[in-house]
Amino acid sequence: MNLTLKIWRQDGPEDRGAMHEYQVKGISEESSFLEMLDVLNEELFARGEEPIAFDSDCREGICGQCGIVINGIAHGPEVTTTCQLHMRTFHDGDTITIEPWRAEAFPVIKDLVVNRSALDRIIQAGGYISVNTGAAPDAHATPVPKQDADRAFEAAACIGCGACVAACPNASAMLFTSAKVTHLQLLPQGKPENYKRVVNMLNQMDEEGFGSCTNIGECAAVCPKQIPLDVISTLNRQLGKAALKGV
């Protein structure tokens, strides 16, 4: 395939940045989207131009490191991570617009790379279990209802890629925060700190500059791990209980 790429280039958070147009030719439809960018970068390097900076690591849809807005959609037109998006989704002659995540809490480091450490600080505020549970118990020592276990695993699938923030018109991190709260509060080990966890993580989310949730649902629509929107309802219920308890 021969493609026209319109890519956001920006030297750093203080730079204004601008869209630049590139042509790539002979791209196989079996290539991944990031492999297509690799081909472009090889061409730029051969011409003595600076390659385009973008994030990637495992390229297996596991780590959440990759993240690009493709034609206005976080991770692109398929519900998957950018690294698992393949060029067969596009057509010969297409023009593809490529931008970084857009959010105040995700400042651009360079080109398509943004600083997502704000999500790490939300986790540090309460997305963990600090209660001393002693040595690892036998798997069947603490029964967990299957419905709760399935729900916890569903929420724990979040990889923290930040697509929910990029897709939300308010740049809210509510789906990310709710997924972390939900999967911990359903398990016996997470219950003792549940209300404190909810309050601390939401306070940190606000402090980082993320917007408020208005239940538009774009976050769940683009989530590559299909975290359901109703985890936000779970968080809101726990927040209400925390308020009643004076946490």
Automatic annotation (TrEMBL):
<keyword id="KW-0816">Tricarboxylic acid cycle</keyword>
<dbReference type="InterPro" id="IPR017900">
    <property type="entry name" value="4Fe4S_Fe_S_CS"/>
</dbReference>
<dbReference type="InterPro" id="IPR050573">
    <property type="entry name" value="SDH/FRD_Iron-Sulfur"/>
</dbReference>
<keyword id="KW-0560">Oxidoreductase</keyword>
<dbReference type="InterPro" id="IPR012675">
    <property type="entry name" value="Beta-grasp_dom_sf"/>
</dbReference>
<dbReference type="InterPro" id="IPR009051">
    <property type="entry name" value="Helical_ferredxn"/>
</dbReference>
<dbReference type="GO" id="GO:0046872">
    <property type="term" value="F:metal ion binding"/>
</dbReference>
<dbReference type="InterPro" id="IPR004489">
    <property type="entry name" value="Succ_DH/fum_Rdtase_Fe-S"/>
</dbReference>
<feature type="domain" description="4Fe-4S ferredoxin-type">
    <location>
        <begin position="149"/>
        <end position="179"/>
    </location>
</feature>
<dbReference type="GO" id="GO:0051539">
    <property type="term" value="F:4 iron, 4 sulfur cluster binding"/>
</dbReference>
<comment type="similarity">
    <text>Belongs to the succinate dehydrogenase/fumarate reductase iron-sulfur protein family.</text>
</comment>
<dbReference type="InterPro" id="IPR017896">
    <property type="entry name" value="4Fe4S_Fe-S-bd"/>
</dbReference>
<keyword id="KW-0004">4Fe-4S</keyword>
<dbReference type="InterPro" id="IPR006058">
    <property type="entry name" value="2Fe2S_fd_BS"/>
</dbReference>
<dbReference type="GO" id="GO:0006099">
    <property type="term" value="P:tricarboxylic acid cycle"/>
</dbReference>
<dbReference type="GO" id="GO:0022904">
    <property type="term" value="P:respiratory electron transport chain"/>
</dbReference>
<dbReference type="GO" id="GO:0051537">
    <property type="term" value="F:2 iron, 2 sulfur cluster binding"/>
</dbReference>
<keyword id="KW-0479">Metal-binding</keyword>
<dbReference type="GO" id="GO:0008177">
    <property type="term" value="F:succinate dehydrogenase (quinone) activity"/>
</dbReference>
<dbReference type="InterPro" id="IPR036010">
    <property type="entry name" value="2Fe-2S_ferredoxin-like_sf"/>
</dbReference>
<dbReference type="Pfam" id="PF13183">
    <property type="entry name" value="Fer4_8"/>
</dbReference>
<protein>
    <recommendedName>
        <fullName>succinate dehydrogenase</fullName>
        <ecNumber>1.3.5.1</ecNumber>
    </recommendedName>
</protein>
<keyword id="KW-0003">3Fe-4S</keyword>
<dbReference type="Pfam" id="PF13085">
    <property type="entry name" value="Fer2_3"/>
</dbReference>
<dbReference type="InterPro" id="IPR025192">
    <property type="entry name" value="Succ_DH/fum_Rdtase_N"/>
</dbReference>
<dbReference type="GO" id="GO:0009055">
    <property type="term" value="F:electron transfer activity"/>
</dbReference>
<keyword id="KW-0001">2Fe-2S</keyword>
<keyword id="KW-0408">Iron</keyword>
<keyword id="KW-0411">Iron-sulfur</keyword>
<dbReference type="GO" id="GO:0051538">
    <property type="term" value="F:3 iron, 4 sulfur cluster binding"/>
</dbReference>
